[in-house]
């Protein structure tokens, strides 16, 4: 059976939003049907052009095994099509219905210490469960068959936030899947023994049948085993997603697919997954209590854009106001939701969606804000949402434009997993903190930056920043070395280039694969005690503080830019610079203060001749550029509280300020946004 004839007139006509898509998660099953007409009326009023529907609808469309009831969902789809709202249709598989875990308790995930996770929340399935995948793909097949020709169907939203609650499972079925995955990776048990260094602690395996996931053990489980388990777990989730994608491609080959990433999330390798998506999408929840939330957002947005080489992406979820899952959940102050939404667009998004359309009356998320709050439409949140929807609708020409960057920051999930393993010189190293410590000065200096995996072609960049790339494969090290040799500028931070793909130390002096390009060797790691700090003496005689980590650096061609001014390494290099080939490689052997990191990054950028999008930007003002067929747009976002005055290189017009004349100067209020163009 097909959706009602009323709307299924032109089978292949889709409701692709003409400009920046605007909308949110739509969960009509939480409401009586009388509310649905009001929903679409309000969507039109608020400029909603796209919703993502059906995310948690499995138990409603398949209330008993194999008994499908799509009639109510047909009406939802028809209503949306009738209102001209495109649907990013979820595959409904994010939360299995109660009957599935009752009939098949083996789908329930287990923790490393063998405890079963029960239903009652959501995402209670083992990613390796064959039964889960069979039922999920059966549902997806029915769904795709039913809505393939529905005019509201714009794209597919596979699953939802894969790995959010169950990124790993240690059950027997996962164990069997892990062994199969390992035998594919290594071929024979001898190769696995070699890769896992199992001669250590009598861990030699005789057959794959003896291998287990790293379950709770008396002491540190084998690090290479843990690393492979992180890879395997990421892959098991991806295989769930791909199993659904395969069904969708077969039935609806021309409908794009996506799945929403959870910001930049340790358990899901954005770069690996993005290659399987037609458009990258991400969820990010700015924290109004965090002064730097826009910097974290900036990083996540740059990762998401870069994951598909700069193509426009979707902000699939953000909150219109407060969330409900932090310890303290305050609303977004007036104007911040608009500002942070524009930030996504400024950094390349062509869609801004929220969780969720109508605030739930019951359930665990009833205190999570929504586009239509409990208080209805006469509320600040709805007014701000409506104003933003209309504002986006007024500038469709922005969609499809793209940005370019001369700087790139390298991020690698394999290295992240390996860096944060136990039994290291320090367990205080945190990949995201170090990445952000390097990203922040670039962001604050207004430098456009991509975030790329280490095997990406670097030739288009002038500056490459490498924070804590602990695990480094030889070919990637060679790529970094060649980048500098050809004239690139490289900034590398401590404890990088230490181990290979199997967490085995690169021998020949740390960091062996980077020694040549950095012009140094590290003799000893000297992590600092908790709260301990060191002096760092800079070339101009100033002293700053450092913490977390230090290393005994032995220069082998590199010059000293700053040295340790106290502690056991006093007088030895803390920051070095090496001219190599036609380029320069910098190395930071400790964690500098944000101010010292900013000064260093500024110096590196000057040497690399990498400049900001606009010079002379006031503090807290972010500037980005997007350009393409629709025009050339300079986005200015004032993340501060106070008004900011910006002088422009030429007279420009704010496309958001109707009728404004071109001007050389612009005043942005606190939280203000301008989108400037010379046309
Ligand atoms: C995630 C989920 C949504 C919702 C929001 C709440 O992003 O995908 O279903 O739970 O969190 O912030």
Please write out the topology.
Layout: E1 21-26, H1 34-45, E2 50-53, H2 58-61, H3 71-82, E3 86-90, H4 98-103, H5 130-147, E4 153-157, H6 172-186, H7 189-195, H8 223-251, E5 257-258, E6 260-262, H9 270-274, E7 281-283, H10 293-307, E8 313-317, H11 336-346, E9 349-354, H12 380-393, E10 407-410, H13 413-419, H14 431-444, E11 449-452, E12 463-466, H15 474-485, E13 489-493, H16 515-518, E14 520-525, E15 533-538, E16 543-547, E17 551-555, E18 559-564, E19 573-580, E20 583-588, E21 591-592, H17 594-608, E22 621-628, E23 631-638, E24 644-654, E25 663-668, E26 673-677
Parallel strand pairs: 1-2, 1-9, 2-3, 3-4, 4-5, 6-7, 7-8, 8-9, 10-11, 10-12, 12-13, 13-20
Antiparallel strand pairs: 14-17, 15-16, 15-18, 16-21, 18-19, 19-20, 22-23, 23-26, 24-25, 24-26
Helix pairs in contact: 5-8, 6-8, 10-14, 14-17
The structure holds alpha-D-galactopyranose.
Q: Quick one: CATH superfamily of the largest domain?
A: Glycosidases
What count of domains describes the coordinates? 4
Largest sheet: 10 strands, mixed
Proportion of residues in helical segments:
25-40%
Question: What's the CATH architecture of the largest domain?
Answer: Alpha-Beta Barrel
Helix/strand-derived category reads alpha/beta
Shape: globular
Q: Which small-molecule species are bound to the chains here?
A: alpha-D-galactopyranose
Poorly predicted ranges: 1-13
């Amino acid at each position: 059976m097909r959706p009602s004839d009323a709307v299924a007139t032109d089978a292949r006509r889709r409701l692709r939003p003409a400009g920046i898509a605007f909308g949110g998660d739509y969960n009509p099953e939480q409401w009586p049907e009388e509310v649905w007409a009001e929903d679409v009326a309000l969507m039109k009023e608020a400029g909603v052009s796209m919703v993502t529907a059906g995310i948690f609808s499995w138990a409603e469309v398949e209330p008993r095994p194999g008994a499908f009831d799509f009639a109510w969902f047909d009406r939802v789809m028809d209503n949306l099509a009738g209102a001209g709202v495109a649907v990013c249709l979820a595959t409904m598989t994010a939360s299995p219905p109660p009957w599935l875990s009752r009939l098949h308790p083996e789908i329930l995930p287990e923790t490393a210490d063998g405890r079963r996770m029960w239903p009652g929340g959501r995402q209670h399935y083992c990613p390796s469960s064959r039964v889960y995948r069979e039922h999920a793909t059966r549902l997806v097949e029915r769904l795709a068959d039913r809505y393939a020709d529905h005019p509201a169907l714009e794209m597919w939203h596979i699953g939802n936030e894969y790995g959010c609650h169950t990124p790993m499972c240690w059950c027997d079925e996962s164990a069997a899947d892990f062994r199969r995955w390992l035998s594919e990776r290594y071929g024979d048990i001898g190769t696995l023994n070699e890769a896992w260094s199992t001669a250590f602690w009598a861990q030699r395996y005789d057959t794959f049948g003896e291998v287990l996931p790293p379950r709770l053990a008396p002491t540190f489980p084998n690090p290479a085993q843990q690393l492979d388990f992180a890879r395997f777990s990421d892959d098991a989730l991806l295989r769930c997603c791909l199993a659904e994608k395969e069904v969708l491609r077969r039935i609806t080959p021309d409908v794009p697919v996506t799945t929403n990433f959870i910001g930049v999330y340790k358990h899901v390798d954005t770069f690996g997954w993005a290659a399987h998506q037609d458009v990258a999408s991400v969820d990010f929840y700015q924290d109004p209590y965090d002064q730097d939330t826009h910097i974290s957002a900036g990083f996540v947005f740059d990762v998401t854009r870069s994951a598909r080489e700069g193509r426009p992406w979707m902000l699939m979820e953000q909150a219109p106001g407060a969330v409900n899952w932090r310890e303290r959940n305050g609303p977004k102050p007036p104007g911040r939701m608009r500002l942070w939404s524009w930030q996504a667009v400024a950094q390349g998004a062509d869609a801004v969606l929220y969780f969720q359309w109508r605030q739930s009356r019951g359930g665990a998320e009833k205190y999570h804000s929504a586009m239509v709050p409990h208080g209805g439409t006469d509320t600040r949140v709805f007014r701000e949402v409506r104003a933003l929807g209309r504002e986006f609708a007024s500038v469709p020409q922005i969609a499809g434009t793209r940005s370019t960057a001369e700087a790139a920051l390298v991020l690698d999930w394999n290295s992240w997993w390996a860096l944060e393993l136990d039994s290291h010189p320090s367990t205080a190293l945190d990949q995201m903190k170090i990445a952000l410590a390097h990203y922040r000065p670039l962001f604050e200096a207004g430098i456009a930056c991509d975030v790329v995996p280490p095997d990406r072609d670097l030739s288009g960049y002038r500056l490459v920043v490498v924070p804590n790339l602990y695990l480094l494969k030889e070919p990637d090290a060679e790529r970094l070395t060649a980048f500098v040799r050809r004239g690139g500028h490289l900034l590398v931070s401590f404890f990088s280039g230490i181990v290979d793909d199997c967490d085995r130390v690169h021998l020949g002096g740390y960091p062996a694969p980077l020694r040549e390009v950095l012009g140094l060797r590290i003799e000893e790691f000297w992590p600092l005690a908790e709260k301990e700090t060191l002096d760092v003496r800079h070339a101009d005689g100033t002293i700053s503080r450092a913490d977390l980590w230090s290393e005994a650096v032995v220069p082998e061609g590199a010059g000293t830019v700053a040295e340790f001014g106290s502690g056991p390494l006093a007088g030895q290099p803390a920051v070095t610079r090496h001219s190599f080939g036609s380029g320069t490689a910098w190395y930071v052997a400790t964690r500098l203060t944000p101010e010292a990191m900013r000064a260093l990054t500024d110096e590196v950028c000057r040497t690399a001749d990498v400049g900001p999008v606009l010079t002379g930007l006031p503090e807290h003002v972010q500037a980005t550029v997007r350009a393409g067929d629709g025009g050339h747009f300079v986005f200015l976002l004032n993340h501060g509280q106070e008004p900011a005055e910006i002088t422009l290189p030429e007279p420009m017009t704010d496309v958001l300020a109707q009728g404004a004349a071109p001007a050389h100067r612009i005043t942005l209020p606190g939280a203000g946004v301008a989108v400037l163009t010379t046309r």
